[in-house]
Design a protein that fits this description.
- By secondary structure, the protein is α+β, with helices and mostly antiparallel strands.
- It folds into 3 domains: about 120 residues, Alpha-Beta Complex (Nucleoside Triphosphate Pyrophosphohydrolase); about 30 residues, no CATH class; about 130 residues, Nucleoside Triphosphate Pyrophosphohydrolase, CATH 3.90.79.
- It is built from 6 helices and 15 strands.
- β4 and β5 form a beta hairpin.
- The two termini are about 30 Å apart.
- It binds zinc ion (ZN).
Length: about 325
């Protein structure tokens, strides 16, 4: 998708630094071969978490997967172990040096010693680009596998194939590919340059975000933006513009970021979804965050990126 000149740059999780090497997935026995090769690097996912290390040092024999993130975290990748062949394996791709990466997916493992297990939400903004791609891809794919163990047509079990990029029904042979669910997220700004933010039903007091929602079948992205804003707060919008996108594997989404101009400003809340909504000036938003009365989305998220684009600079606040 071509980017208009004014877009969101440097979104976390959206780096595309990893070569996904999709052409290799159909090779017979690819996972077995890679898990028998000590040069392969394995990402062990344990109930959605992965072990991380400080960025210092480079003694684990990895290829060129880019430096650690600004805060110096990297994934604790390891050589293959015999037990990896029993786990769900996912071929994630290769880096610029041809090092192959495989995720093995398991439940939480009782940890001896002080392994630092973290979720992608916790560390996604602090990993280097290749590591962020590895974790994001592995988590999204693992989340899809976890909910597609049976065939939607006949109910029989499915089994993974193509190095984790396909499930096949053991009864009727139908093929089921990993899904990504598109969601739109939008900064809505009125003619007085105020930003619309809302507190979701069930969120804590003072926690606000821009609006978001899933795209429905038969709907364009622009139509989804307008519908979500109308449904949730009763505001009509125009001039919907794409600004950027971010994979969001919680569990299997991609967030498509837009901005739109409000043509009405009266707020009528959909109470099942929205507890509170407000138009913020920059001074109100920055003051609220500084006084810790207002909580905005974490640095990891495109939601934060949309808010900061409207503010015009990074906002000091939550991590
Ligand atoms: Zn079936």
């Amino acid at each position: 998708m071509g980017r208009p000149p004014e877009t969101l740059a440097n979104l976390s999780l959206a780096g595309a630094a990893l070569d996904r090497a999709a052409h290799r997935r159909r090779a017979a026995g690819l996972l077995e071969a890679l898990l028998g090769d000590p040069a392969t690097r394995v990402l062990q996912l344990e109930a959605g978490s992965a072990e991380v290390l400080d960025g210092a040092g480079d003694d684990d024999g990895r290829g060129g997967r880019g430096g650690p993130g600004d805060d110096g975290l990297r994934l604790a990748l390891r050589r293959p172990l015999p037990a990896d062949r029993e786990a769900l394996g996912l071929f994630l791709g290769e880096d610029g040096d041809g090092t192959a990466y495989v995720a093995v997916v398991g439940d939480a493992v009782d940890s001896e010693g002080a392994r630092d297990l973290r979720t992608l939400r916790q560390v996604g903004a602090d990993l280097g680009h290749v590591d962020a791609d590895l974790f994001t891809t592995a988590l999204g794919l693992a989340n899809w596998h976890a909910t597609h163990t049976h065939c939607p047509r006949c109910g029989a079990p499915t089994r993974p194939e193509q190095a984790g990029w396909l499930r096949v029904c053991t009864e009727d042979g139908t093929e089921h590919y990993p899904r990504t669910d598109p969601a739109v997220i939008m900064s809505v700004v009125d003619d007085d340059d105020r930003l619309l933010m809302a507190r979701g039903a069930g969120w804590g007091e003072g926690r606000f975000s821009v609006l978001a929602g899933f795209v429905e079948p038969g709907e364009s992205l622009e139509a989804a933006v307008a519908r979500e804003v109308r449904e949730e707060v009763g505001v009509e919008v125009a001039d919907v513009r794409f600004l950027g996108d971010q994979p969001w594997p919680f569990p299997t989404s991609i967030m498509l970021g837009f901005t739109a101009r409000a043509v009405t400003t009266e707020l009528t809340l959909q109470r099942s979804e929205i507890a509170e909504a407000r138009w913020f000036t920059r001074a109100e938003l920055l003051g609220g965050v500084a006084r810790r009365e207002l909580g905005i989305s974490p640095r990891l998220s495109i939601s934060r990126g949309l808010v900061e684009r409207w503010v015009g600079h990074p906002v000091e606040g939550p991590p």
